[in-house]
Amino acid sequence: MFHDFVNLLYPPVCHICEAALLKNEQLICTSCLHDLPVTRYHLDNENPVKKVFYGRVKIKNATALMHFRKKAGVQRLIHDLKYRGHREIGSYLGKWLGEELSAVSAYQDIDLVIPVPLHKTKLKQRGFNQVEDFGKEIAKSIHAEYCDKILLKISKTQSQTFKDRLSRWGRLEETLDIKNPEKAINKHILIVDDLVTTGATLEACAHKLLEIPGVELSVATMAITD
């Protein structure tokens, strides 16, 4: 009753179009959900996410749930998650992608789900890692372990805007460290992030994790830029 009373005073609205949600809708209205640019990349492993890493780092499988376009619905979802603290969006997208990955054989042998880490300063400012809930829901769906204690961000990243990809990668890898490597020996790891653009951050994370013997890597993100 209390929940219904709160909804009466403050009816939940769609995170994309801000229309009032119907009783059977969650976070996104049916119309906006229908219009989201989903990729289905996990159904074809030779896809644009996988190709981002060709010749750079060995990735077994790669996917992104949606296409990211400026001033569009996906951007609003990720903005509400990262900067307005709507963690439920991360859970929602993680459940969605996790359910799809659970039906794909290429993702059935994943042992660990590891998020791209945040430095403790940024984590304190934001209050949470924006891919934590996304990763936890995926891990639950594919029966893997979520672990954020292996790959750590040990120093803040300087602006990379005017650096080439090679320079960015070297600088990024220097900000990362591995702890408790024994937990990941001979494991298939799924690295999760919110967005893949150049792939520099995920590449640096991958190279660091590949220092652990026997590791295989896959990647899953909420979105990929067009």
Q: Which helices and strands, and how do they pair?
A:
Elements: H1 2-9, H2 30-35, H3 48-52, E1 61-68, H4 73-83, H5 87-101, E2 112-115, H6 120-126, H7 132-142, E3 145-146, E4 151-153, H8 165-174, E5 176-178, E6 188-196, H9 200-209, E7 216-225
Parallel strand pairs: 1-7, 2-3, 2-6, 6-7
Antiparallel strand pairs: 4-5
Could you explain how this protein is built, in words?
- It is built from nine helices and seven strands.
- It is an alpha/beta fold and 226 residues long.
- The protein folds into two domains: 1-35, no CATH class; 37-225, 3-Layer(aba) Sandwich (Rossmann fold).
- Helix content is 37%, strand content 17%.
Strand content: 15-25%
The tally of helices reads: 9
The overall average pLDDT, rounded, is 91
- Oligomeric nature of the chains: single chain
Kindly state the number of beta strands: 7
**How far from one another are the termini?**
44 Å
Task: Determine the CATH topology of the largest domain.
Answer: Rossmann fold
Q: Could you estimate the helical fraction of the residues in percent?
A: 25-40%
Number of domains: 2
Strand order of the biggest β-sheet: 1-7-6-2-3
Largest sheet: 5 strands, parallel
Radius of gyration: 18 Å
Structural class: alpha/beta
The CATH class name of the largest domain reads: Alpha Beta
Q: Could you spell the SSE succession in H and E letters?
A: HHHEHHEHHEEHEEHE
Low-confidence stretches: 1-8, 159-163
Shape: globular
Name of the CATH architecture of the largest domain: 3-Layer(aba) Sandwich
